């Protein structure tokens, strides 16, 4: 009975310490992320065009936030939002596998005796200082201290395990059958969703002497290696869970994390003895029980580096593999800027041309919104409604980025009078295109209401709506062509049509009121009809504004 009680004490101590370890790690990572603000996400997003740079970004960011799972989840989100390509994501994920090994290296330093003073210092900064940067630094230090307090608790609670014959027998089996160690590491890490925590537990457990007074570690390096490899596989479960319900390329990015880690782990399983000898050779020397933590940390780090170096040249192949495993097409909608280059801000003419290209791309999206809004209302096509909503997000993002880019150009203070006039015109055009998108969204929502409420519209009303879309659609097409090609003649054609659209709106309203009085139209439908025509007229107004900007800037 006392053995059972001791075992329960060990179990509670282990999981209590593990809870503090994970809490401290999350607290530390969260503090660092807050201190960095949105810069971590921006760094991942903007510095990943080169595969080697992507690996470096993944390494640095993961070393900061102390979680490869967190980095990979961010990457999955960016890929899902079309802010990052699959190739870029794979590079960052490879780097994340290196960055996450920092935790094991910190544990190997074994500063557990200073854990309480570190936590106390961090607590004071975190809870009593109001200045944000100091507060977040305090949170980081506090989390760091709590992490080591958790390690101390785990270490103390696991010390009696050497007295349990069943546990010693299990360790011996793991040494004899490496596949058991691989499965143990995989399952345990899948449960707690943190390879850093799993390897921390392994380091603490391994550092206990196999017998009191012995210099032999409870788990030697050769037995620990399969567990490490299992932890690398198990940690991919977090990204796989995060990829549920997201876009195809995001699912592929999560799967790439799994394929990458499984590939390296399976290959290394065939070279465990030789790899263990190499790690012993490069690690510090001393009694095994004193240096096993450092050996495990080195094995973890070196495996991640070697696996990444081997796979970097085959990033394209890995992308093809996950594409074959998860077939299908994404919507092709890129939620990022293509042309804006901040390095060109010092050359106003080039920077303005780049902004113009991005603006034309934004206008193309607005035109797509117009076409889909038409299908959403007339055909009650709910897929068209979804497309409009997706495009609206992209148009809003592009407006924000283009305006910021143009404002940065303005702050340089080296513009000619003509360039200043043109820049102001581009800012106005950006806002006009965004407003066109807003009106298209309104129209798509009217289509959704019509579908959901089974709202009746007469054939005559639908015919009038189709005519209105045709007329305004022509203005949209011409204004965007005029903008893209800087064609003032086409812009003049747009401005001449604006008064026709105003007259059309008034005429269609009058005809719809007649149908309403003749009880040929549902009253609720009459309201939707009037609002729809008004939104189309407002789109025409914005087309007119764009055309006028083209004329003034020519």
What this model shows, in words?
The chain is mainly alpha-helical and 554 residues long. The chain has 23 helices and no strands. The longest helix has 36 residues, at 417-452. The radius of gyration is 31 Å and the shape is elongated. Residues 1-5 have low confidence and may be disordered.
Rounded to an integer, what's the Rg over CA atoms?
31 Å
How much of the sequence is in beta strands?
under 5%
The stretches of 5 or more residues where confidence is low (pLDDT under 50) are 1-5
Mean pLDDT: 81
The portion of residues assigned to helices is over 70%
Quickly count the helices.
Answer: 23
- Structural class call reads mainly alpha
Distance between the termini: 92 Å
The tally of beta strands, per DSSP, is 0
Q: The biggest beta sheet, please?
A: none
Write the SSE topology.
Layout lengths: L1 H35 L2 H8 L4 H15 L2 H13 L5 H14 L2 H8 L5 H14 L3 H27 L6 H12 L1 H15 L2 H12 L14 H14 L2 H6 L5 H22 L2 H11 L5 H24 L3 H11 L22 H31 L3 H30 L5 H36 L6 H27 L2 H30 L5 H31 L1
Helix pairs in contact: 1-8, 3-5, 4-5, 4-14, 5-14, 5-16, 5-17, 6-11, 6-16, 7-8, 8-11, 9-10, 10-12, 11-12, 11-16, 12-14, 12-15, 12-16, 14-16, 14-17, 18-19, 18-20, 18-21, 19-20, 20-23, 21-22, 21-23, 22-23
What are the main properties of this structure?
554 residues, mainly alpha, Methane Monooxygenase Hydroxylase, Chain G, domain 1, 2 domains
Short synopsis of the structure:
Helices cover 81% and strands 0% of the residues. The chain has helices at 2-36, 39-46, 51-65, 68-80, 86-99, 102-109, 115-128, 132-158, 165-176, 178-192, 195-206, 221-234, 237-242, 248-269, 272-282, 288-311, 315-325, 348-378, 382-411, 417-452, 459-485, 488-517, 523-553.
């Amino acid at each position: 009975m006392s053995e059972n009680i001791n075992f329960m004490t060990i179990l509670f101590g282990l999981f209590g310490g593990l809870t503090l370890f994970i809490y401290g790690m999350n607290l530390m990572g969260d503090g660092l992320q807050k201190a960095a603000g949105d810069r971590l996400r921006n760094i991942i997003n903007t510095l990943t065009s080169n595969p080697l740079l992507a690996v470096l970004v993944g390494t640095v960011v993961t070393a900061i936030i102390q979680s490869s799972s967190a980095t990979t989840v961010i990457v999955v989100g960016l890929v899902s939002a079309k802010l990052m390509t699959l190739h870029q994501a794979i590079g960052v994920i490879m780097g994340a596998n290196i960055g996450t090994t920092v935790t094991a290296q910190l544990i190997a330093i074994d500063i557990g005796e200073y854990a309480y003073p570190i936590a106390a210092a961090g607590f004071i900064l975190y809870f009593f200082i109001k200045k944000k940067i100091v507060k977040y630094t305090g949170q980081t230090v506090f989390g760091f201290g709590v992490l080591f307090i958790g390690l101390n608790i785990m270490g103390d609670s696991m010390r009696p395990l050497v007295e349990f014959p069943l546990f010693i027998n299990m360790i011996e089996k793991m040494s004899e059958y490496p596949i058991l160690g691989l499965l143990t590491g995989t399952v345990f890490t899948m449960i707690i969703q943190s390879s850093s925590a799993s390897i921390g537990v392994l380091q603490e457990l391994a550092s206990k002497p196999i017998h009191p007074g012995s210099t032999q570690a409870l788990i030697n390096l050769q037995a620990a290696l399969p567990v490490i490899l299992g932890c690398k596989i198990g940690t991919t479960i977090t990204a796989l869970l995060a990829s549920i319900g997201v876009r195809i390329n995001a699912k592929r990015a999560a799967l790439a994390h799994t394929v990458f880690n499984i590939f390296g782990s399976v290959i290394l399983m065939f070279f465990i003895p030789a790899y263990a000898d190499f790690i012993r050779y490069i690690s510090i020397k001393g009694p095994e029980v004193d240096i096993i933590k450092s050996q495990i940390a080195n094995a973890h780090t070196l495996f991640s580096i070697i696996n990444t170096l081997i796979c970097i040249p085959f990033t394209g192949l890995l992308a093809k593999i996950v594409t074959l495993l998860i077939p299908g097409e994404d919507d092709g909608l890129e939620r990022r800027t293509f042309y804006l280059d901040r390095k060109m801000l010092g050359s106003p003419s080039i920077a303005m041309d780049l902004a113009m290209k991005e603006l034309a791309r934004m206008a193309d999206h607005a035109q797509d919104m117009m076409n889909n809004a038409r299908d959403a209302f007339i055909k009650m096509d709910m897929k068209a409604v979804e497309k409009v909503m997706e495009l609206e997000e992209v148009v809003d993002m592009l407006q924000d980025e283009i305006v910021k880019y143009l404002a940065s150009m303005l702050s340089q203070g080296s513009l000619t009078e003509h360039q200043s006039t043109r820049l102001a015109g581009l800012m106005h055009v950006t806002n006009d295109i965004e407003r066109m998108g807003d009106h298209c969204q309104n129209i798509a929502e009217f289509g959704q209401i019509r579908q959901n409420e089974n709202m009746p519209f007469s054939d005559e009303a639908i015919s009038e709506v189709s005519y209105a879309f045709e007329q305004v659609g022509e203005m949209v097409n011409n204004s965007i062509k005029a903008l893209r090609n800087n064609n003032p003649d086409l812009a003049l054609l747009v401005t001449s049509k604006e008064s026709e659209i105003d007259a059309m709106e008034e005429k269609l309203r009058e005809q719809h009121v007649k149908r309403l009085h003749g009880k040929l139209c549902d009253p609720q439908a009459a309201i939707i009809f009037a609002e729809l025509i008004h939104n189309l007229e407002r789109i025409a107004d914005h087309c007119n504004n764009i055309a006028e900007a083209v004329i003034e800037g020519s």
